[in-house]
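All the exercises in this workshop are built on plain-text protein records. Sequence and backbone structure share a record, each on its own labelled line. The question running through the whole workshop is how a given chain folds. The record below serves as our worked example for the rest of this section.
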Amino acid sequence: MKLDPIDLKIVAALQRDGRMTKLKLAETVALSPAACWERLRRMEEAGVIRGYTAIVDLEPDAPRTTVIVEISLKSHQQADFRRFEEAVAKEPAIVACDATGGGIDYIMRLVTPDIDSYQRLIDRLLESAIGIERYYTYVVTKSVPLIEKHSLPPA
């Protein structure tokens, strides 16, 4: 689906505030509510807008450490990838895992109470038979909000 500048304004507005009413959205992008609703419905049906979510922080004062980990596997057969992916999918601390091309096989994002908890998790993964050859750890020192960066400039 090709998005025109008005569609992009709708997407940007929803990225800033996914809970805004359809009337407020129409006002924000300078469309009639009916025209705005039709564009929104079309983008949802086409899969451009796949859903609406809430960012939830159940324990805002709880200590936590975010870690990015690059993973390389020992072997690169389909069964090796499947075994690794099935194992990491069971770990609640792993909040994202992306397969990548190039020098590494996966990039994972983990959230743990502290570095010690992270290291115990990695040690457990290394001791399991999921084929990790090497890993590189990057501790996140600050998360940079990108909402405005993802918003598109006015047309």
Observations:
- The mean pLDDT is 89.
